[in-house]
Amino acid sequence: METTQSFRKGRGGAQAEEGVEEGGGTRHRTKAVELKLLQLDSEDEVGAESSSRSSALMLQQPLKYKKMVIYLTLTGLLIFTTAFLLGYVAFRNSCHSCGDDGDLVPVEDPAVADQSDRGLLYMGELRHMLKKYLREEMLETTIRRVSRTTHPAGSSECNALAREVLQRFQQLRMDHTWTDSHYATLQFPSSSQRNTLWLVDSEGAELEEIQLSAEDYCAYSATGVATGGLVYVNYARAEDFRHLHSLGVSLEGAIAMARVGGGVSFAEKVWLAQQAGMVGVLIYPDPADVPQDPRRLGLHSGAAISDHVHLGSGDPFTPGFPSFNHTQFPPVQSSGLPLIPAQPISANVASKLLSQLEGPVCPRGWQGRLPYVRCVLGPAFSGVGGRRVKMGVFNSMTPVLLNNVFASIEGKVEPDHYVIMGAQRDSWGPGAVKSGVGTAILLELARTFSTMLQNGFSPRRSLLFVSWDAGDFGNVGATEWLEGYLSMLHLKAVAYFSLDQAIMGDDNLSVYTSPVLAELIEGAIKQVEHPKHPGQSILSHLENVGGGWRDGIVKPLYLNSGAYSFTAFGGVPAMELRFNEDVRPYPFVNTQWDSAERLQERVQGRLGSVGVAVGELVGLMVLRLSHDHILPLDAACYSNAALHFSSQLNQHSTELQSRGLSPDWVFSARGDYSRAANTLKEAIQNSDVQDERMTRLYNTRMMRVEYYFLSQYVSAVETPFRHVLHGRGEHTLSALTEHLAMLRSHPVQFDETRFRRQLALFTWTLQGAANALSGDVWNIDSSF
């Protein structure tokens, strides 16, 4: 080898020497010509011999100059082309806000050892790869596998499914797979005593028993017996109870009859009924809200819908604390647990009871579609004897071991920052929608990203895939994990995507999201084909039906969403996507009829294609979050909410000033936040995205925007949903706005001391968010 190298070196050295000698001779002759020309120019008199020599030399020069010009021109072109290509590559590497097809986000090829010769994959290639590897048949197979039997949390079926999910993760090219366990207290129907419903006389003697299914119940209901008159409360919303009070209907000591739906959860219905002084709640699916023709994919009129009634999330007996097996907290109970019993009933049972009521006629718009029912409010029953309703709820609390299953792909640049995808695994019934869809999409995304990893995909940030336990009981598994890492999660989690109930139809897309993530949506829906309208993207379909896409699909997070706790409790940007149908909502969730066959029939055989559409939407947004140098998050998203509240304060300025209250501090905090957000945006636009230190600083500030809006002045144990805009409690903007409205609607009920406290809590939370977003705590004033 050394001889060969010496030979090559010697041969090259000889050639080089020859080249130098030739070049030297040429340069010598050229210099002689130049010197001679200068001498000729400087002399006044030239001899004939010199003149003839000069003429001969000048005749030879044009040919040499032409060669030199051609040589210099080619050299210049080569330099220009090289510089252009280098500049083009550098620009493409630094582009973080180009168009959708602008080949964003260079990705290092891990197969290339020499980073100077790294392979690059751009967003167009990654998008093509994502679509190529997502498989319809895999999604359908998993949905059918998961929903072949009931699998409630803590059951052997659910534990077997957890082992299967873990095994599927382990078969993929994941960097880490693991489980974590929690001991939580869940409520189930009693095995020894069924829940009951009776008509009784004025003395309490039982006249008629109304049969209830042993499987239907409200988890975390208070237990015991309640007796009273029956009042129809529509959807049991806050405005419904206000309307009943205005009509003079007696609610104290009565049992509420409430419809499913209306934009409020079972837990909120029971809580509001309890606040109104009622002693129990019956909840039924009205045909006006839930289709009830089995021949046309409707719920059977004899079926009830079960749900939990804990006004919160997680284990209600360790509020604010994680239920890890190595922690032993003193017995405590969540303030969100109801103090009155609640029970789901069928439309048939509701019809039987409501048809016998007497009292004022229902307000306009309260009439449902129960057959043979004249809509009256109660609370009395027709006929003699002073009949009432007696309900008995005997559910039992049970400690259960829960298992969350995790898998991760490590990021190559920022491995400590995670983009999280998760889905509920348990279900009271077969759970095709409730748990099958989410689990299938989760596993398919994990398989797809793992396959992409083997074909050049190299994420900048880490990806985390999670299968949650006990979702039916109020996202218990997810919330317990959040509670365990609450002090650090906002430092690590970029965003969370909930895949729960992602397919309930195939027509309309709804996106329940933190506003911080809203900018991601448009790019995704522009690139994904609508599953029901081939040839059209989801965005173009929305534009064809009219209206702006934001108004059409973007909705706020809600209490029972799998994403809600991440934002309202943990301060992490979160999103949940769902295909549904407004005209015919899917009626089988939380029933024994939630099967893969009914879901497939509902979407007219397009279950796989709708699943792929959801996978693409989530996958595209995950790609952006895991690879862009600058995170595509909107730090200014709450400026409009603060501005809207400021305008409301202005409208009440006279009343406020008469009470010595000034909104000036709110205006100042709103202005500081708006300026801080705009300053950060401008700094990012003018920065070098290749500067890793600066990009990390900017990203850290943006990914904590939701955390900035968690009130630091209320307890995470007593008021877990501390977010001032998405949370629940006295500290929230909604509570402050409702109280402000009393200045004109009910000035006698306006509590000035309470309002001052509410205003102070919101103002300082907003000011704190502005200070944090500005970045430099020592130069806050100059930053603004």
TrEMBL record:
Share an example GO biological-process annotation for this protein.
transferrin transport
Q: In the UniProt record, does the keyword Lipoprotein occur? A: yes
Domain Transferrin receptor-like dimerisation, residue spans: 667-773
User: Where in the numbering of this chain does the Peptidase M28 domain appear?
Assistant: 404-535
Q: Taking every annotated instance into account, which residue ranges of this chain make up the domain PA?
A: 227-292
Gene3D superfamilies according to UniProt: 3.50.30.30, Transferrin receptor-like, dimerisation domain, Zn peptidases
Q: Look up keyword Phosphoprotein and say if it applies.
A: yes
Tell me the GO molecular function terms. Answer: transferrin receptor activity
Q: Where are the transmembrane segments?
A: 68-91
Q: Which GO terms describe its cellular component?
A: external side of plasma membrane; melanosome
| Localization annotation | Cell membrane; Melanosome
Question: Which keywords fit this entry according to its UniProt record?
Answer: Cell membrane, Disulfide bond, Endocytosis, Glycoprotein, Lipoprotein, Membrane, Palmitate, Phosphoprotein, Receptor, Signal-anchor, Transmembrane, Transmembrane helix
Region (Disordered) residue spans: 1-28
Q: What family classification does the UniProt entry report for this protein?
A: Belongs to the peptidase M28 family. M28B subfamily.
UniProt name for this protein: Transferrin receptor protein 1
Q: Which organism is it from?
A: Denticeps clupeoides
